[in-house]
Amino acid sequence: MTTVAGPRTESASGPGPGAMAVVLVLVLGAIMITLDTTVVNVAINRLSQDFDAPLATIQWVATGYSLALGAVIPSTAWAVGRFGARRLYLGAIVAFAVGSVLAGLAWNIESLIAFRVVQGLSGGMVMPVGMTILLRVAGPERLGRLMSTLGLAILVGPLAGPALGGWLIDEVSWRWMFFINVPVAVAVVALGIRMFPRDVPATARPLDVPGLLMLSPGLAALLYGVTTGGESGEFGAPGVLVPLVAGVVLIAAFVRRALTARNPLIDLGPFRNRTYAAASGTLTLFAFGYFGTMLLLPLYFQVVRGESATVAGLLGIPFALGSGTAMQFAGRLIDRIPAGRLVPVAIATALTGFALFTFQLSADASYWGLCGAMVLMGAGGGATMMPTMTTATRGMSHDQAPAASTSVNLVNTTSAAVGLAVTSVVLSAFMSGIVPDDGDGTLQALHRLSPQGHAAIAQPLSDAFQHTYLVALGIMALSLVPALFLPRRKV
Length: 491
What we know:
This protein is an all-alpha fold. The protein has two domains: 18-207 and 265-483, MFS general substrate transporter like domains (Growth Hormone, Chain: A, Up-down Bundle); 208-251. It is 76% helix and 1% strand. It has 23 helices and two strands. A two-stranded antiparallel ribbon has the order 1-2. Helix 3 (76-83) packs across helix 4. The radius of gyration is 22 Å and the shape is globular. The protein starts with 7 loop residues before the first strand and ends in an 8-residue tail after the last helix.
């Protein structure tokens, strides 16, 4: 198996702050990334109004960010070897803060999308490099506990993000949902300089430039083709077919090169391991459906139920609470219970929650019933994601850690980006014909409707959201298949 050489980080069990102190700083950095993601989901409807842009365009504020996250991840293992995990992590935090300020100053939708890509290119390194630091300071016996602590970011971000973002959007300005990242970034850099173990120089491998020029553009072209084709409904059109084919060819060429090159961009060796492959397959399918629905929840409350951004954010709290709480328990259980016994149960819990939520959806569904289902949705997701990622990376050597964390984060981030794009396309398709559209998009048409006109189509709109959730539910159900191949005995 090809390994990734890079600067070694001194163990946190040695001189300096302990592993838990290091992890808490990583949590703060991860909170900034997840906070930014969840805040934007609540803002989609407002951004559509302010910039007079259709859903197919506005969704690129979220999808472009996620795609940039995935595009930069492949070079992370090389960058760790070249610059060191500590230096790279702190540099990425600074760059993310700069991108946040630029996004807050955006003057049109094109500039906002461009600056979101800047955010993504820097933020994409935060989680995999943070996981590399974590893997190097934590022993295998306590990895699950520390990973669950790192998962606090996935509790605090979705919990505080929608409510805080909704309030900022309604009472201040959507621009401040980006500016709030700056003080967090300052705190992370100040603490990281003091607490992160220093990198010990080592021989860095060369950057696989051909591989990078194949994978990142390939992912971008594939996602663009899927989104454009879904928006126009003409997958045979040259503007759709060319990027689709180009994306598939470039990704296939990258895989071939990664299997044969001496120093590939991403070491695919871990995928030869059955556990790693099964965990990656589980993450691919589950993240596709799970994160794809993140766009739907706040839009349903705002578009169908007419709630403000603040209320829509507050109504998402049960989902975040279920996710974060379950993640803490599951992160500790995975140190004692085999993944093959824990993860399928977690997926089944998520599917139950999503099914209950989906079949309740209507123009006047009880918020109590929806919130109850959302707790199960979040709990199942939280108990699936972090234990699966822990299982994938557990047992990797010091030098394998960057490649393993890079690959598993790439799988997770790319699946989420594709899921977001596909979900917006599916929702737009189901909404077409319901709203009188003059050609500039269904969301704009909705904004022009009178209260009486909106009330008349509330139930058909709710049905469109319900059908979109059913598509996501079916994709998540497929993740049970690779989950059954996870180890069922404690190693």
